[in-house]
Amino acid sequence: MIRELFEKKKAYIGYLTAGDGGLEHTEKMALALVEGGVDLLELGIPFSEPIADGPVIQDAVERALDAGTTPHQVIELISRLRKKIAVPIVLMTYFNPIFVAGQEFLKEAKAAGVNGLLIVDLPPEEADDYLTWMKEAELETIFIVAPSTPEERIPTICRISTGFIYYACRKGTTGMKKGVPEDLPEKIAQIRRHTDLPIAVGFGVSSAEIAREILTYADGFIVGSFLVQAAHEQTNPIELTRLAASLDPRSLL
Fold it and tell me: Which of 53, 140, 219, 248 is catalytic?
């Protein structure tokens, strides 16, 4: 389902931290993003040590955990969303919650309508058991390539990924930035030498201008912190739909 999406068009991927503002709020905001043009929905399972995330998502994670959000509640949320939307859904989290929840959790995720997982902090060299679990659950795997990833490591990341490659185009943590790194074309070309998987770019996408430049080279763009902050501030889903639509540059390509 994920690969088919990229075969049809350049993809707009939107991220929300599940449980930020409550699960009912997340559900409304997720539907608003899809209404605003998001083709693939990433939902973050909150974890107490979000080391790869910047302040906006760290705050969202803290709010979600304070609200008592659990991985199983996120699966229940996805079950409800699946009755209303058909876009692919990817869970994004750290390995600890998945390890604690166990292999059965992945099967529950698949049954609820999850299409894939992105584990932020799982080294490919230590992923054998996880990959076996994912294959048995028939879930897609997504791994991250960063600017600091040595080229000799990229083939391994590409080999164990099945959905798409997430290129985190900036060093450090997530967050809203200005402009696109100068080395983006070179880095995308470097990854393409090792895979025919789609490549989606995230970390710092906060405007249609940035997204348009990314799509010159990549197969999709990912908006995280910008949408998380907006979903936190908005009580009206219609406003989030408008904002999400304003970030989509594809009609101008």
Answer: 53
pLDDT digits (tens, 9 = 90+) for 50-104: 888 889 999 999 999 999 999 999 999 999 999 999 999 999 999 999 999 999 9
In this structure, is the dihedral angle defined by the CA atoms of residues 39, 244, 27 and 204, taken in order, positive or negative? Answer: positive
Structure tokens belonging to residue 108: 């529950």
CB 211 within 8 A of CB 179: no
Question: Which position among 27, 42, 108, 213 bears the catalytic label?
Answer: 42
Q: Is 200 among the domain residues?
A: yes
In a domain, 103, yes or no: yes
> Where in the sequence is the domain holding 32, given as residue range(s)?
15-248
Quick check: is 164 in a domain? yes
- Concerning whether 53 is annotated as a catalytic residue, the answer is yes
